[in-house]
Amino acid sequence: MEALLQAVVNGLLAGSLIAVPAVGFTAIFAILRYPSFAIAGYVSVGAFAGWAANTMLGFGAPLAVLVAFAAGAAAGLLCELGALRRLMPAGALTVAIASIAVNLILENILRFFFGNDLRGFDLPIQPDLIIGGIFVGLQQIWNLVLAVAVVAAVFAFLMFTRFGRAMRAVADNPDLARLKGIDPARIAAIAVALGAGLAGAGGVLLGLDTSIDPMTGYRVLLSVFAAAVLGGLGSIPGAVAGALALGIAEELALLVVPATYRTGVGFVAILLILTFRPRGLLGERAA
Amino acid sequence: MTAALIAEGLVAGYGAAEQILKGASVAVQPGEIVTIIGPNGAGKSTLLKAVAGLLKIAEGRVAVAGRDVTAQDAIGRARAGLAFVPQEANVFARLSVAENLSISGFLDPKGSATELEKIYARYPMLAGKRRALARSLSGGQRQILAMAMGLMQQPTMMLLDEPTAGLSPRAAEELFAAVIDLNRAGLPVLMVEQHAVEALRISHRGYVLVAGRNSVEGAGPALAEDPDIRRLFLGG
Ligand SMILES: Nc1ncnc2c1ncn2[C@@H]1O[C@H](COP(=O)(O)OP(=O)(O)OP(=O)(O)O)[C@@H](O)[C@H]1O
Ligand SMILES: [Mg+2]
Fold it and tell me: What residues does the ABC transporter domain cover (chain B) (predicted)?
């Protein structure tokens, strides 16, 4: 029973970290209608930018997350405007494949400058807390708080700002949005900056939890993708729900299968959801 | 007097296929309601889309309140004062009523905020459903919302594509009353309608569009009573 509860808690903590890039992935999909696998590269770029801000400039975790957001957003805009956007006329599949290439390029740029070594953030060692027999790291709780703050900020942006609402309008009905004077190219740029920025912020959150290297983003890509599919591609609340569900499912699976099969959970989740609920857990929109 | 809208000799279509509009023209004078009728597939919706800038035109010109907007895209034409309520998907289904209205004032957040108060006063039903998702509205309520979204643009010219499509006779009557109401307040309206007799009766003028070209035109009530028109298009 305690093992079960521990797995659920661990799953929620891990899932909350995946939720941040998953929201980014789904935001880009909602507007640009292609799955951006470059999100893995943006995660890694953000992770290194946040790490540099932390270890070289002495920034604390919240500021490092902000720096990572900015770096991810900048990388995203550069890749989108410089390369991916030009391929749009060739269709979503072409752009999706090109985004895999963009990921490899970003990963290797990082490798060129930083090498393959694992790097850790420079943070005070935090004790583990034991609450009712459940172990939780204090750092993990801080990470959860940061993840919740980031996702809450995204929701506030989408619900209460002029351009956030315009983004939702374009996701809902791009032609009608154009009739109302909303420029789709501008909204697409905002969506990419937001999505890639979230990926970058997610990179730091994942790095705070463990360590980083140029493959940090690639390693979580499947989970990010699975979380977004689970929630219904293009649905932001869905991506959050999908990430938490996936996090819990992965931890529960570890109770019965060896750790090497952990990533298999993502594949199984994608298969099941596409077979039985193609619109995602919350059923918001067809993929 | 400058016409509220002039569209002249429009030739337009959907890409490679044959052009749908083969030189159609309409004009709307200030203060007028003008209705376009015609058989299914005549190109009525295509005409409104071409006027609104959703469709590239191969030939012809469009002017709004005396300003040539032929070179402008849909956004430019919205800026020039055109509001277009399409036949389908004319609200943001997953946004609330209040959000649908506020986003429709995107180009002028300040001016449209004042407009919003007037709209809620004019359509109390919308005020009562501010928080409801647009997709939860009935057909009649949705059309009112779509028209109100057009008003949030503070237009000088309103284009409506089949505003009464799929409505009960009673809801259709209410919608026509709302159109008359707006027009009395000074807004010129160009609409496409299947309920041809009812629409022509409330219109100053009407056009009959056949196969992408103008056929007959005349005063609305006269067209509504014309036996040839009734026989050809209205099944009467
Ligand atoms: N998006 C599109 N792509 C290709 N062809 C289209 C498109 N929309 C309409 N058409 C074609 O253009 C022609 C005119 O269509 P349009 O919708 O303008 O007719 P309409 O007069 O509005 O008819 P209805 O009374 O049925 O609304 C039709 O033959 C239709 O098949
Ligand atoms: Mg039509």
Answer: 5-236
Q: Which residues contact A250 (CB under 8 A, 6 or more apart)?
A: A11, A14, A223, A262, A265, A266
CA distance linking residue A106 with residue A99, whole number of Å: 10
The four Cα atoms B151, B43, B71, A87 give a dihedral, to 10 degrees, of: 100
Interacting residues of B41 by C-beta distance below 8 A, sequence separation 6+: none
- Which residue type, as a one-letter code, is found at position A148? V
Q: B144, B70, B58: which is closest to B101 by C-alpha?
A: B144
Domain count, chain A: 1
Tell whether ligand 1 has an atom less than 6 A from the beta carbon of residue B212.
no
* Residue A73 lies inside a defined structural domain of this protein: yes
pLDDT in tens, B48-102: 999 999 999 999 999 999 999 999 999 999 999 999 999 999 999 999 999 999 9
Which residues of chain A neighbour B54 with C-beta distances below 8 Å?
A: 175, 178-179
Report ipTM (2 d.p.): 0.92
B79 interface with A at CB cutoff 8 Å: yes
Residue A238 lies in a domain: no
The secondary element (H helix, E strand) that includes residue B35 is: strand B33-37
Average pLDDT across each block of 10 residues of chain A; the chain has 287 residues. List them in order: 90 95 97 96 98 96 97 98 95 96 97 94 87 88 94 96 96 95 96 98 94 95 94 92 93 89 83 82 55
Structure tokens at A68: 């990572």
Can you state the angle between helices A39-55 and A2-32, rounded to 10 degrees? 110
3-class secondary structure, A187: helix
Looking at the domain assignment, is residue A80 inside a domain? yes
Joined together, the tokens standing for residue A224 give 């990010």
B195 ligand 1 Cβ < 6 A? no
Contact present, B223 and B216 (Cβ < 8 Å): yes
The atom number, within ligand 1, closest to the CA of B42 reads: 21
Tell me which residue of B165, B195, B158 sits closest to B180, measured CA to CA: B158
Give me A66's structure tokens: 């902000």
Residues A21, A197 contacting (CB under 8 angstroms):
no
Domains with residue ranges and CATH for chain B? 5-234 (3.40.50.300)
